[in-house]
Task: structure prediction
Amino acid sequence: MSGSGFRKLSSAKLLVAAALIAIFSGAVVGLSVGYVVHYSAPATRIFYLFDGTVPFDESMFYGHPHDTFVPDTITVDKGDHVVIHYVNIEDIGEAHTYTMDPPYTFDATVYGNATQQGVVGTYPNVGNVVLSQGQNATITFTASWAGTFRYYCAYHQPTMTGYLVVIG
Ligand SMILES: [Cu+2]
Result:
């Protein structure tokens, strides 16, 4: 047994220790950055939402509607004030809803057309609002609960569904 064997082992341990310190330091820095971002002040997030379609014959797909939401994902941070401008852009006389399940509710103002002329109705603290062809709703709420929550059209399930992702 020689001294050099020991030195080799020590070097290996030193390398492992250095690697561990590097990894740990990296994690600490990463976490710190994460906290800074995580606790940034709540912001107002504005989205434009439309009814869309996928191109298939509704009668050929087990009776499923071809309607969808565009976009189908809305991502915000917890505490953000969310503003959704939702327009029914149908070229036929078809209505759509914007609907959310508890715990989320929203305030909605519905206008007669896409340029927000003529208030059709105001609906405070509701879970569902109906838009006729051409109508436009301003939907507002605070993202108070973190998690993934669906928003959907009550008339066109299961396809017309989107997800609100609230990062906590
Ligand atoms: Cu619909």
